[in-house]
Each structure stands twice: as C-alpha cells, then as structure tokens.
Amino acid sequence: MGMGLEQDAALGDYYPLAYRRLIGTLQVMGVPAADAGEVAQEAFVRLIPRWDTIRTYESPDGWLRTVAWRVWLNRRRKHARVSLVDEVPEPAQVPGISREDRTSLLAALEELPEGHREVVVLHYLVDLPVARIADELGVAPGTVKSRLSRARSALAATLAPLEVDDV
C-alpha cells in the first residue's frame, strides 16, 4: 500500500512549508514550542496514509490544523496539563508589526481564554472566514463571532494601539 513516486514527491514538496506554518499556528494558539513540534509530527503521521484524499481538499492545511489541535487537546486531557505557555513563543512573523509589538501581542493572546485565542489566531493570523473557523472548531458561527468580539475587547483593553499599515 505504498505511495507512488508522484504522490511521494507531492507530499515531500508540501511538508516543509506546511510543517512550519502548522508549528507557528500551534504556538500562537498557546501550544508550548516543545510540544508544538511533536503535535505537528503526529498530525503529519496521520496525514500520510490519507494523503491521496487530503491533497485534493481545498485546504489540506485546515485538515492538519484540526487534527493537530485535537491531538493537543487529547494530550492535555491525558496529562492533565494546566499551563499552556511557559514562555512567549516565537512563531512565524506577524506581518505589519514590529518585533516588540508582536511580543506584546503574543503575551496578550496568552491571557485570552483558549477558545477566544483559537478564533483570533485562525481569523486574523491564518485569515480564515468565520464559517470556516466554525467548521474547523465544531462550533456555531455565532459562537465564533461572539468569541471574536470578546477577544477584541480584551485585547483592546490590554494592548496599546499597535502601528499597522491600514489605510
């Protein structure tokens, strides 16, 4: 049941960038750097036997994020971890803001409740629409909108205005 050379090459091309994107997203969502790599690897292990199907999806990255997040939640439940982030992670660059502002943003995200942090990361950093986030997280679109609203209010109260090139 091995993959043909063509499928193997396609997965080989997909893996490096998708792996880095997944690690960065997981870290911003509050998964410690030490765990993000393992969680991402487990998601890819689950992807390999399904690659022929998943590569035809509109967004294989969405499938990976969903699987990785569920792996993380199951791991946390199993190990009864309480602390989500021991240090401010260094995810992929957040475009349009300085390193100092990015550090402040990550610290503020860390303070958000888990569900709020998820929707903020998926909406603003991964650039997913509300309906897609609802599908990935298995919640109603109204729940996503409510969490986004509450998260924006909490972030506005925590953060000094960031200079972003928005005209």
Automatic annotation (TrEMBL):
**Record has Transcription regulation as a keyword:** yes
One Pfam family here:
Sigma70_r2
Alphabetized UniProt keyword annotations: DNA-binding, Sigma factor, Transcription, Transcription regulation
- Which residue numbers delimit the RNA polymerase sigma-70 region domain? 20-81
Which residues belong to any copy of the RNA polymerase sigma factor 70 region 4 type domain? 104-155
PANTHER family named among the record's database cross-references? ECF RNA POLYMERASE SIGMA FACTOR SIGM, RNA POLYMERASE ECF-TYPE SIGMA FACTO
Quote the NCBIfam families the UniProt record gives. Answer: sigma70-ECF
User: Of which family is this protein a member?
Assistant: Belongs to the sigma-70 factor family. ECF subfamily.
What is the protein's given name?
A: Sigma-70 family RNA polymerase sigma factor
